[in-house]
Write a structure and sequence with these properties.
The protein has 209 residues and is α/β, with parallel strands linked by helices. Helix content is 34%, strand content 20%. The chain has 7 helices and 7 strands. Strand 5 and strand 6 (153-162) form a beta hairpin. Helix 1 packs parallel to helix 2 (45-54) and helix 5 crosses helix 6. The longest helix is centred in the N-terminal third of the chain and has 15 residues, at 18-32.
Length: 209
């Protein structure tokens, strides 16, 4: 079997590639007959764009924003939650699994995040949001889905995944990469990127619009 992967090599990772990433995700969902796309969205901008693309397709979103308390205020608008749910989509504010090292006293979550960021930041987020959605019962274990995430803003990564819960991580599989940035971003253990620091101190964002 031969498939194509789109690599984004120009523009800011994430923000300038959102529309193309969503196009690839929606088209792949249609080809496979999938009815769910899991999407990371912090401010709701990417969720709005995705919902508009999915209108009339029968494909529904599982949108995963930042959990409450991750920044000083919740950036995902409550009115957008209602709007999306009226369209049949779901919005899940769950515990962000790769940010729990301080709570559990274990470095494993951060280590997993660092390893996944060697592929790209969006891959780390795709794995995380699929686990979170499955933990919430919004995805069935073994369900094939498309996951979409990005680097700092917007979307630049889309994958095909077999969903599983965080208690059965070994059953989660990334079977295909649809697109990703060539330029990857990561940081040393215990360090924070500048935009993440702004997010914790001044309501900036970490992963996706």
């Amino acid at each position: 079997m031969e498939k194509k992967i789109v690599y984004f090599e120009v523009g800011e990772p994430g923000h300038q590639n959102t529309e193309e990433t969503l196009r690839l995700a929606v088209e792949e969902a249609g080809r496979r007959g999938l009815n769910k796309i899991v999407l990371a969205s912090t401010t709701g901008e990417t969720a709005r764009l995705a919902a508009a693309r999915l209108a009339g397709t029968g494909v529904k979103l599982v949108v995963v924003p930042h959990q409450y308390g991750f920044t000083q205020r919740q950036r995902f608008p409550q009115d957008l939650v209602s709007e999306l749910e009226q369209q049949g989509h779901r919005v899940h504010f769950g515990t962000m699994l790769f940010h729990t090292e301080g709570f559990y006293g274990s470095g494993a979550p951060e280590t997993m995040a660092l390893v996944l960021r060697t592929i790209c930041q969006g891959m780390k987020v795709c794995v995380e949001i699929v686990l979170m959605a499955a933990d919430a019962g919004l995805l069935a274990k073994g369900e094939e889905v498309i996951a979409v995430a990005g680097t700092h803003r917007g979307a630049d990564t889309a994958v095909v995944a077999i969903a599983s819960t965080s208690t059965a991580l070994h059953d989660l599989h990334i079977t295909e990469i649809l697109c990703k940035p060539l330029q990857t971003k990561s940081w040393r253990r215990g360090a924070l990127p500048s935009h993440y620091k702004r997010g914790r101190a001044g309501d900036g964002i970490e992963d996706s619009d």
